[in-house]
Each structure stands twice: as C-alpha cells, then as structure tokens.
Write a structure and sequence with these properties.
The complex is a heterodimer of chains A (121) and B (329).
Chain A lengths: L10 H20 L5 E2 H10 L10 H10 L3 E6 L7 E6 L1 H26 L5
Chain B lengths: L6 H14 L5 H20 L6 H11 L2 H12 L12 H21 L7 H17 L2 E9 L2 E8 L19 E8 L9 E6 L15 E7 L10 E8 L1 E5 L3 E5 L18 E8 L5 E7 L5 E5 L12 H4 L15
Antiparallel strand pairs in B: 1-2, 3-9, 4-8, 4-10, 5-6, 5-9, 7-8, 10-11
Classes of the chains: A mainly alpha (121), B alpha+beta (329).
C-alpha cells in the first residue's frame, strides 16, 4: 500500500520524526548568510512553526555540528549578558547544506506529487 | 509590587540539569551546563520587569533537563557522519604534487633562500592535510585580529598528546597545539594566558620556573627537528601579573614569526606550540584577543581527573566559558 492514513493523535510523533532528519540542515541554513549565537538560533527555530520544541536541545546539536566541522564557533563579548558563542558555516557545512537542499526539493516534490495524486484520508 | 529573588528558580533548574548530567562525560557536562546557563541569562536579559511567571516560561521553553540530556547523550554517541566532503582525484593529486614540490624546492633552493611560491603552496597544502594525518582534536576556532586560528591537539594511538617537533625531550606538563597562520598580516600577536597550579611559578626572574612556549613550524622545506618540523624559537614568556591561579602572559605566539626566521613573516603555514611549566603544573590555557578578552579557555579547569598528561585522551580539553578568576590587566 502506497499511502498510510496517519491518525491525528500521531501528528506529534510524525512531526518529531520529520524534524529529526532536517533540523540540523535548518541550523546550517540559518547560518548561511551570517554568524549567529545559540540563543538567536534557538529562538529563530522555535518561532518557525515548532521546528524546535525545547530550545535547550539545540546545544547538543550545535556541539555535534562543530565536531563534524560543519560549523565553527568563536566567543564574543556581549553588551548584555554573558559572552556569546557565535557559530558560522564552514565550507564543508555549506557543501552539506547545498547537497541537502537538492535532495530535499526532490523528496518534497516526490511526496507532494504522490499526495496530490489521490492519497486522501 | 514586591521584588522577588528569581535566582533560586533558575538555580533549582540548573541543579536538576546537573543531576541529569551526572553520568554524562565531563566534556558534555561542562559544555551543556555553560550553554544552558548562558541561554537562560540571555532570555532573562530580554525582559524588562521579570516576574516568576516569566522565568518559569523561559525554563519551559528551554525544556526539561532530562530530555535535553537524553538528546545530548544521543548526539555524543560515535556515529557515521551524515556528510563527508567528497575526495576527488584532483584534491589527491594536488596534495601529492605539493608534497613533491616542497621536497624538490628544499633540495634545490636550500634553507636560506627566500620562500618560493612552491614552498608556500606546499606548506599550505600540508596545513590543510594536517587534520587528516592522524586523528586530531579540533579544540577551537577563533579570530585574533584579522587572523583566523584553528587550535588542534593530536592524540597518539596510546592516548597521549602527540609532541610536535623539535624533538627536544620535555617531561614537564605541557599543552600542545597548533595555529594555522594564513599569512594575512606581517605582524600579529597571539596572546595566551597559561593557568598553572598555585605555587608552581616563580620566583620572578628565574626563567627555569616560568611558563615557556616552544614555537615551531611545519615546513616541507626544512629538515630540522626529529618529527619533521623546524624550531623557530623558544620563548620564556613575559609575565605581567601573577595570582594564585593564573599567570598572564603577553607577547607570545606569533611574535616569534618576526624573530629569528625573518623569511617566515609572510609565510602561511601551520605553527605548532608547546606551552609548559618546568617542574610545575599547567592546568589550562586561554587564548586571548589583543585587547585581553578571553577567546577560548582550554583546560581542565576544576576537573580533578583531567591531568595535563592525558587531556587529549579524556576529552578534558574543552572550550568553556572564561574563568571568573581571570582579570585583564
């Protein structure tokens, strides 16, 4: 069977699964044009229709992206509050984001095509 | 309205976070605690008149500590990288050609000739292949002035930090590292603040008890050093202030580039350094900006199990917040 009906009670689980595969690329995308610090990234993602439900979970993710060398970080003094750790995209991160963007569009178009082709609930 | 002390609410949250992190590796524990505390402080700084409800809302948004820690532990698990830069034959050929070119240039040109474009190219190529030679630990990346630096430590298969050239036996505690110098400026200072154990420094004027930094350079055109590097200089660092826990060091690092090896002034390359305290305990290292701001702190700080000898092996070399004990001069 090509289409599976997802009960509305599973919507959170579904969102969580979709978020898991794409959240790190959303972080890379936010860093595409400018350096940002953790709090700023967390707020942007949280405001983007629930891409991040717990703001604190962004830090383990940023740590892994740093270890994978997709982003790099540096500390900078802040005029309010503690010093901020800023993140910026590495060349490798940019390549990863570009590669994901291509795959994502292909995937999205494929899913849209199938859904619009008659997978009504 | 009665002013309420809201810090206990935050501290209670931090205590729950610490409890959830109890079994996490030290590196994860330190970093996550620092980041979450900073996040909460940022959010509170945005509030004009904060109420208990505001603070509780912030903590709700941050998330339940157990959930954050579960994700942190999951992320810290060794895993296959999702993205790996494709290695093309062009890159591989460039590295091989650069290495051959550097060797030829060394043989033909000799050590005292001005740096040729070939040497510069091969030196740069070596820098970029350096992380691939053995498993390195990229400790931190930052900027000092116009220069971006990458700080690495390498760990040998036995788990000890690898000692970079010049082959001189150093049995004292040390922090090895490396700086990539892109050759953007002819005159750059990199400052370090070496943290040492109480009573481990001095007396003043006695260079054998002062923190020292050895600076060398990986250069295909040089044959010096037992591990393929050349020693540019050994510096006894200038000390401008001392307290029980820290020694402020100035004029270290890249200043050596303007010294004995003048032709290296414009050379991009990878410079390695060892910071050590003869006969003492080196407990950490801060990289400072020219204005004295702490860009990164590397070291065990207050972690009792992080002896300097196995910093790289235990993951103790974790950038953390600047120490509150640090006071710029």
């Amino acid at each position: 069977m090509l289409c599976r009906v997802v009960p509305s009670t599973d919507s959170q689980t579904l969102m969580s699964q979709m978020r898991r595969g794409s959240i790190e690329y959303c972080v890379l995308a936010l860093l595409k044009d400018s350096e940002r610090y953790g709090y700023e990234l967390a707020r942007s993602l949280a405001e983007a229709d629930g891409l991040l439900t717990n703001e604190g979970t962004i830090y383990p993710l940023l740590s892994r992206l740093r270890q994978d060398r997709l982003v790099e970080s540096f500390w900078q003094e802040s005029n309010k509050g503690p010093p901020r750790r800023y993140y910026r995209l590495t060349d490798e991160g940019r390549e990863a984001l570009d590669a994901f963007s291509v795959q994502w569009r292909r995937f999205r178009d494929a899913v849209d095509g199938v859904l619009e082709g008659g997978c009504a609930r | 309205m009665t002013e309420v002390d809201l810090n206990p609410i935050v501290e209670d949250y931090m205590r729950r976070l610490a409890a959830a992190l109890e079994r996490a590796p030290a590196a994860v524990r330190n970093e996550l605690t620092t980041e979450i505390r900073g996040h909460i402080e940022e959010a509170r700084a945005d509030l004009v008149d904060e109420t208990p409800a505001d603070v509780l809302n912030i903590l709700d948004r941050v998330g339940e500590p157990s959930q954050i820690v579960a994700i942190a532990l999951d992320e810290a698990r060794p895993r296959r990288r999702l993205w790996r830069r494709p290695v093309t034959w062009v890159v591989a050929a460039a590295v091989v050609l650069a290495a051959i070119g550097g060797t030829l240039a060394a043989v033909v040109g000799g050590r005292n000739s001005p740096p040729s474009p070939l040497i510069a190219t091969s030196s740069t190529a070596l820098v970029h292949t350096y992380p691939a030679t053995t498993p390195p630990v990229l400790l931190e990346t930052g900027r000092v002035g116009k220069v971006t630096w990458d700080l690495y430590a390498k760990v040998s298969p036995l788990g000890h930090p690898v000692r970079f050239g010049p082959g001189r036996p150093v049995s004292t505690p040390q922090v090895p590292g490396a700086i990539f110098y892109p050759g953007l400026s002819t005159f750059v200072w990199v400052h370090f603040n070496a943290r040492v154990g109480a009573g481990d420094v001095g007396p003043f004027g006695n260079p054998t008890r002062m923190p020292q930094i050895l600076i060398g350079k990986f250069d295909p055109g040089s044959a010096g050093g037992s591990e393929g590097g050349s020693l540019i200089g050994t510096m006894v660092l200038g000390v401008t202030s001392v307290d029980a826990r820290s020694v402020r060091i100035t004029r270290a690092g890249m200043s050596a580039l303007t010294g004995p090896t003048a032709t290296d002034r414009r050379m991009p390359g990878l410079y390695f350094f060892l910071v050590y305290v003869p006969g003492g305990r080196l407990t950490g290292l801060d990289a400072l900006s020219a204005s004295g701001k702490v860009l990164a702190h590397l070291g065990p700080n207050s972690l009792p199990n992080c002896a300097v000898a196995n910093l790289g092996a235990t993951g103790c070399l974790t950038p953390t917040n600047p120490s509150p004990n640090f006071t710029p001069v």
